[in-house]
Here is the input.
Amino acid sequence: MITQDKEKYEEELNQSISYLKNLGYSNIKADVKGYETPKSYHKKGSDIAVTPDIVAEKEGRKHIFDLSLKSQKPRLLKSKWLFLNTLSQLKSYRFRLITTKGHYKFSNETIKNINLDTIKLLKI
Here is the structure.
């Protein structure tokens, strides 16, 4: 989810956090009130920052989660996903997308457009 959509989809973010807790994830960091904010990555020479929506651990491995919800700026969302996928591959993390009912088609089409078919979708 991009920064402009944070307030709009805050409820979905909270649902995702509780879902992950039920699955056994621990040390959850989220970009929402009440949780520690995950590490942001800044683009050199500009003011662009990329922050994962949720970072959690399970069985000693770090997982990065991003909400896949309809957006007015899908190009920015695609760039964020490509960056997070590359980062997770470099650091041996796991990258997953979380989506909800009504956003499945958008999520699948966006993933196919940027050739990230290896990413697993968590459907809530």
